[in-house]
Specification:
Largest sheet of chain A: none
CATH topology of the largest domain in chain A: Tetracycline Repressor, domain 2
CATH class of the largest domain in chain A: Mainly Alpha
Largest interface: A-B, 38 and 38 residues
Mean pLDDT of chain A: 95
Helix content of chain A: over 70%
Oligomer: homodimer
CATH superfamily of the largest domain in chain A: Tetracycline Repressor, domain 2
Amino acid sequence: MSHTVGIRQAQKQKTRQALLDAALRLLEEQSLSSLGLREVTRAVGVAPTAFYRHFRDTADLGVALVEETLGSLHLTIGQALREPYDEARIERSVALVAELVRASPAHVRFIARERHGGVAAVRAAIGEQLDRFSEEVAAAFAGEPESAGWSGEDLRMLAGVYVDHMVMTASSFLEAGSGGEDKVRALAVRQLRLISLGRRHWLDGP
Amino acid sequence: MSHTVGIRQAQKQKTRQALLDAALRLLEEQSLSSLGLREVTRAVGVAPTAFYRHFRDTADLGVALVEETLGSLHLTIGQALREPYDEARIERSVALVAELVRASPAHVRFIARERHGGVAAVRAAIGEQLDRFSEEVAAAFAGEPESAGWSGEDLRMLAGVYVDHMVMTASSFLEAGSGGEDKVRALAVRQLRLISLGRRHWLDGP
DNA sequence: ACATCGAGTAAACAACCGTTCTCCGAAGAA
DNA sequence: TTCTTCGGAGAACGGTTGTTTACTCGATGT
């Protein structure tokens, strides 16, 4: 038994990826619930029936797209969270979001659009991933001296605020385009400063 | 010339409203970009061609739906903002959102779904309305003693955080259903407390 | 070398779509 | 009353949709 992937499997993954890429491009101007199976296969240049070799339907493709977009992000976020809590941390995390949006805007648009979109399975998949992010952020916060005395519940609340804000910031970067990028960045930084200020005084006396 | 609406106009508005209602119901399980013209007229019980008497296409209907949902809300929000800034203000505003979601969940779902949805005109209409809300909240904040020394830019930033949080809370109420309502309410209240804390210390020395 | 597997093809299906054109009949204006 | 206006009905159009069935043909495992 060889561990090489084999010509066959390699070709399959190739067209599968082509389907995902084409779908992502088509989803820049519409929602997943209106994305047609034939539309995708036509863009790739394969027969409509070939679609079924990879996905049950477009909803299934959507779930795969969620995995592709958010699955690989846990590692990146994890590394960023390991960095020390200094003055420039806020700027760095916002810059990370900005770079992510610039690197793959279609992926970000897809997540923002389908997070509350019309396909239940995709909504659930995105929600699950975002919850995982919240848990990871909460775990990172728990190890910081600033979180001394915080309850686990409050930590998860705080993490949720940060995650939600990051998603919203990414969406704002998209809407603003390359022109208003600096404006969005400055706004996001000030909002994060506000939240950090709230965090610092969370345990102040009544 | 009589100022009575006339049987004719009244009937037109009636079917127009029926189209809007039917569309809103259909949009609970899909996105606007996949909503068919025939689908809507079938649900109402009129001929497909009757649709054109009221809307150019489904995107046009979507814009009308935005107006119906958010247009009447400015008055409600305005009244709530005129209330004094006491201890229970946060709970009251969250309760207002909860009641709004309970009263017309389909409208709220529509806004949350199409805010980043696949129809540009509708996205723009929602963004415009939300910007108006932000301006109104900022104007209300400007008249409060807690905002002394705040720049106009910072006030709009703060107002944006509150508006975004309200939209997000409304969406959370929807996802949670009637079962997890208390959980969402408690979470939203704590998040707002965090933000208020940041607001209170915004002008603290460096 | 040979039988099997399976990704992709081709054709056909009924169902549905948005849009146009023509017409009807009640409401409104004279 | 007579004439006009206009919301809605009806039929038909070309085009697209998802899905099924039968097929090809090169990679795969023995």
